[in-house]
Amino acid sequence: MTLDPQGERTSTTYKYWILAAIALLALPQIYTIRVFGSYIPLAILPILLSAPLIKLLRKDRRIIFLLAAYYVVTLCSVAWSPNHGAWANYCLFFLAFPLPFLLGRGSREAALESCLKLSALIAAVHSLLIIGFRFFPDLKATFLLSGSLRLFKNPDRLSNYELGDISLNIFDPSKSGGLFDNANTAATFTLVAIGVLIATKNRFSRSSFLAMILVLSAGVLATGSKSGIFYLATLAILSYSVSAVTEKSKIRAICLLLIILPLFILLPLLSSTLSSTFFSSDLGQDTIKTGGYRLQLWTIAADAIKSHPVLGVGFGGWSEVMSSRATFFGVDPNWPPHNSLLQAWIETGVVGVVLLVCFWLALIWRAILATTKQTPGGGASLFSLVAAAGMSMGDPTPLLGAPQFAPMLGLLLALAFNRLDSGDTKVHLSTQ
To answer: Which of 178, 245, 409, 427 has its CA 20 to 30 A from that of 154?
Structure first.
């Protein structure tokens, strides 16, 4: 059987435009359509249109099985879910990662690189907005109070609170989220974008690449997200360390030694001074406060899960858990779980959380394999994957179902895994 060249070209062109639409709409989302009473972002449409173009690969069967099993558990929870609206939205947003990932696995490298380059450029422009909002808080307040956020965030969710209440966290001058109302979500998006930029380094001139790295890194710092800044610094050092080992670079190894050795000597001497300074500062006090608050959320979850240990309380059940226990535990009933594993545990039980963890470990293992084999984009994919997973441990943004950065992360992993499967280890494309 011979393939129709014209039909193949048409399919390739269609796939490219779908990829471009996914990259273009991932950040803004654009909420203008209401379906069955719920707002659906335009960004989800190209993702759904990609489904007929997907071809499953045998090498992905473990990842697909774990993903499908977790999705089935979530789907089954409709039988006992107390919040069907949240469940229905999640069923759509859940697809924001797997469909772009699977579409990318069957796409040409040039098409993937072009679309990821577009994502990186959009993220860099958004970083400038984050920085602007951080240095000009009045500008951020004007944006939030104007109602413009309703275009980029589900209006139904915004109706849960009054934007005019300046006591809300989103009006904090030390935080900035750009088009997001949450600084942690903005930091996660930007961290993933850094990995995307590194993986498509060959698509930029040296000066453009360095400028964008600086802008994206500054964007993470400007969010004011403590977790985002921590992962930016930690993953940068780890990435540099891994590259020194895998590429056997003596120069990088010496530079790394010159960084680590002074820290190794000075930290023990300054530890007491640094700790006392930190815990007496506003940042330290805020960290203690939020840490204690989130520990209470785990206590609440442990109390609620006793009666539903295997399959959880059903998707959307967190709000029910909080409303019935918040007063007793002395916490705000409107607080989200602030941890994606905690949310998976309470809503899908032990079965769901185990499947979710195994799915992410399977992805991380492939990314580690790509990194150790010096696959172009391997280290970048690992950087973004760990950043996304790590940030979700302290933020309401779920591991799966974050429509802003999940498509970008899916395409990035597809690019790295495609190169790994093809045995591509070109030094000039190395992104370690």
So the answer is: 409
